[in-house]
Here is the input.
Amino acid sequence: MSDAGAPAVQTGRSPNQALALDRLVRTVGALRPPGIGVSVFAVEDTTAQVTWDGLAAGPVRVAAGDAEVVIDHGGGPGAVVLSGLPPDTALEAVVEAEGAPAQQLSLRTLAPPPGPELFRLATVNDIHLGDPHFGHLPTVAHPRHARHSPPRRCLEAAVSEAAAWGAQLLVAKGDITDHGSADEWALGAEVLANPGIPVEAIPGNHDVGREAVDGRATLAAAGIELRAGRPSARDLPGVRLVTVDTTVPRRNPGTIAASTAEAARLVAEAGGPVLVAMHHHLQRHRLMTHPPRGIPGAEAIPFLDAVAGANPATLVVTGHSHRHRSYRWGPITVAEVGSPQDYPGTWAGYVVHEGGIRQVVRRVAEPDAIAWTESTKRCFLGLWGRWSPGSLEQRCFSLRWPGR
Ligand SMILES: [Fe+2]
Ligand SMILES: [Fe+2]
Here is the structure.
């Protein structure tokens, strides 16, 4: 971290407690396998993002096929994107860095969905602007003397990198703020609007918490509509975007029962493919299988059935769980995407084609931002680094709309 030094472990405990906690974290850390090191984090039809959790300062060369990138790396974690790769092709990538043996990585680029590309949009969620730390065991506190807090820095980098990728619309799908304070809303409006591309927002539970104020006017002044209340639809080239507010004021779990009929109607009436975006993840089992609580299965399952019945050409995307997963529900696909500000620190891109859609999830690559997100990998006794990322196939996929 160039302006702040290493993130500090926040204790708030007695010296003995802190020592015991530190021993526990180190013991568990020593037991678990090594981190992901150098890996392929994201693939598209013609690009691949290669990331690493710690390389020495100096030149880093990454090459695959005819593509090559050489950067002057400042040391620590980092990322590069290889472009111009052949679609639907197995490739061998090589990573060369100072003081480390050359690393070979296998990757396969995606096949693009059928038909021409029509539109690109990007999403961010679970930014938690105003949050002073992340996680437990250990809690990672923000660096002292930081010019900007990590959530702000990570969001700035995410929206900038999504815009450079070609996003024509940005969807902020909840937990934009940590407490919904006026200052946090103002910061969210400023950072989200900064790249100059249209922005839509959906509230998350943290945006409607006990101390939250209504952020709609603040966002509207920056040209951002907060789509709170009833489900709404916006027709984009090649896809209808349906947004669903799943929040319950002053409560963390979500709800969707009262919105299901209207959302299903908007999905059915699209006359074509649909992307449904919401904050809370849908618990697809009757019993909760992992924290945090999302939308309970008793509500989520009827919603998924209704959407799948209304329009099989649908992709549902959510947040709140701060992790990356995707699964099929009958003919439709559902994807959870994590946060820009905690490991692995991501944003998602959606490329709409005439005959399908593909999702790419990239790590936020700006050096200070990736240094921060890498530091949160050790939270929850080191399990966070293994729980949140999901698999490459769950993060990056290409869908063909049914019947096309
Ligand atoms: Fe969140
Ligand atoms: Fe949330």
